[in-house]
Description:
By secondary structure, the first copy, chain A, is mainly alpha-helical. The first copy, chain A, has 2 domains: 82 residues, Winged helix-like DNA-binding domain superfamily/Winged helix DNA-binding domain (Arc Repressor Mutant, subunit A, Orthogonal Bundle), CATH 1.10.10.10; 76 residues, no CATH class. In chain A, 70% of the residues lie in helices and 6% in strands. The first copy, chain A, is built from 9 helices and 3 strands. In chain A, a hairpin with an 8-residue loop joins strand 2 and strand 3. Chain A is extended. Chains A and B meet through helix 1, helix 5, helix 6, helix 7 and helix 8 of A and helix 1, helix 5, helix 6, helix 7 and helix 8 of B. Chain A binds a DNA duplex through helix 4. Chains A, B: InterPro entries: ArsR-like_HTH, HTH-GbsR_regulator, HTH_MarR-typ, MJ1563, WH-like_DNA-bd_sf, WH_DNA-bd_sf. Chains A, B: Belongs to the GbsR family.
Amino acid sequence: xxxxxxxxxxxxxxxxxxxxxxxxxTIGQMVALLVIHEQPLTANEIAESLKISRxxxxxxxxxxxxxxxxxxxxxxxxxxxxxxxxxxIWDLANRVFEERRKREVDPTLTLLRDQILEGGNSPExxxxxxxxxxIHDLLETITKxxxxxxxxxxxxxxxxxKLGSSVSKVIDLKxxxxxxx
Amino acid sequence: xxxxxxxxxxxxxxxxxxxxxxxxxTIGQMVALLVIHEQPLTANEIAESLKISRxxxxxxxxxxxxxxxxxxxxxxxxxxxxxxxxxxIWDLANRVFEERRKREVDPTLTLLRDQILEGGNSPExxxxxxxxxxIHDLLETITKxxxxxxxxxxxxxxxxxKLGSSVSKVIDLKxxxxxxx
DNA sequence: TTAAAGTTTCAATAATTACTGAAACTTTAG
DNA sequence: CTAAAGTTTCAGTAATTATTGAAACTTTAA
Lengths: 181, 181
């Protein structure tokens, strides 16, 4: 399976970006390949298209499954496994976002909680405790907010996103409503 | 300069998380150290506290400056440079967020725009073009939205964040208002 | 000026992370 | 049951990324 120049371009770019998105080059390329192809692909097709080893594909699939980004399908009368993106583009983006929050925010939140409980002993640590509390509160807000977004339906999210520059107006509106009641 | 166990814990943790936040261990530790200390620190103090080389500190500072996370200060009668966080915790988080968007989203947006302009030649590429368009639209929405958030004042952001579960109510409200007018 | 204090650069090297490919394992058709 | 088809694992190695430390550079006080 060789790729058209345009598709190859796209796949290579996603490979380069891969490490910035939280995985590695190979895995970036794999997601791109699966997303850009309407039909599911076999592990061998992936290896051949990307010119990487079969073992590497296997490890990549495993990693992608841990991110819940791929699903396995089968074609009747064919025992090979076929891989496809697990949901719409939007679903995939959502999962990456969520997974990254888990890896980038949650462990810190846990540590900070513990440190806050410890309290400040020496007076020299007063400032440090304050800073830790501030960071904690910020991260907790981000966590709650992102959980909130996850709960919205795609349509609601679209609406929210499209609010654009009127976000601040909505906030003002909310304020006024709260004051009245 | 040696660190108290609690502060050392915090600094080491931020080091481990560093690579997940978009920089490396040393830089993660440096930010943590600067944030946790009320007084600005010299490059030598940083090197000594973190037990890393002077050169490494210099490169780290440079990187942190490219992220706009540190500022240089001077103490009258002392020619050494003192480093401190460039703004509040909130400011720093904001900058990291923004910088990451630039590195993680913008390059892809540029590529996709070009690819969309190229158009689809072979009928086999129809599907690919559709996917590319979808990804493009998603990324553009994210970009616009995040620019929007940047424009809000810290207070407005606080309000927005604290809306929490009432976000969907606000959206509904907006819908109703739009229909009336 | 100049030399002492301070900072940066970068080639060499260490540490980490990713990839290969062959062997081991699993599944299924016959 | 068995052998062919398919998949996974992982030790060895390649590629990448981070760090050191010594030399070069810059700044300033005297």
